[in-house]
Hints:
Layout: E1 2-6, H1 12-21, E2 25-29, E3 40-43, H2 48-57, H3 61-69, E4 74-77, H4 79-84, E5 85-88, E6 99-104, E7 114-120, E8 128-134, E9 138-142, E10 147-152, E11 155-161, E12 164-167, H5 178-186
Parallel strand pairs: 1-2, 1-3, 3-4, 4-12, 5-6
Antiparallel strand pairs: 6-9, 7-8, 10-11, 11-12
Bound molecules: glutamine.
The site of glutamine has 11 residues, from helix 4.
Amino acid sequence: MKIGVLSLQGDVIEHINHITKLGHVGIEVKKLEDMEGINGIILPGGESTTIGKLLRETKMLIPLRNKILSGLPVWGTCAGMILLAKAIEGEIDGHLKVMDIKVKRNAYGSQINSFKREVIISEISGEPLPLVFIRGPVITEVTSNVKIICKVFDKIVAVKQNNMFVTAFHPELTNNLEIHKYFINMCK
Ligand code: GLN
């Protein structure tokens, strides 16, 4: 399987390493042509404002949006989740605007802006999974076609809507491969 990782800014290599460990091929997507032949794409964590700006500058925003709308499996981690949301609290406009969710950036407040939890996500595994949050967003609104997959401190932090999956945390920064395995299954 060929899994693209949007490589404009953020933690790209960590995702590529996890994909490689699972026996698949990770492709750095820096321009439109790099998306040819991929089975799915990961939008990594980083700074959503910067990645959104670079998506526009590289003229990838609209083609990527169209590919997702026509069914390309996509997984957004943290900033990637913000890029996919139709609405961002306190901001006039979003970026790719494909998922029926509203997000709040940097939602956990300064003292716990970054933290780690072990949580069982029954959709993915029976074992507790390490979740790493780095100035993470939360999902504040979903429509009924969005499946809630995980909550932490009573806040929604992972959801799925058809071919689109988002997590407010960073599985690529742990040694656990379960969540990458889950996304690769979505790409089959
Ligand atoms: N705080 C970042 C943003 O709002 C996201 C942080 C991350 O991806 N780790 O874009």
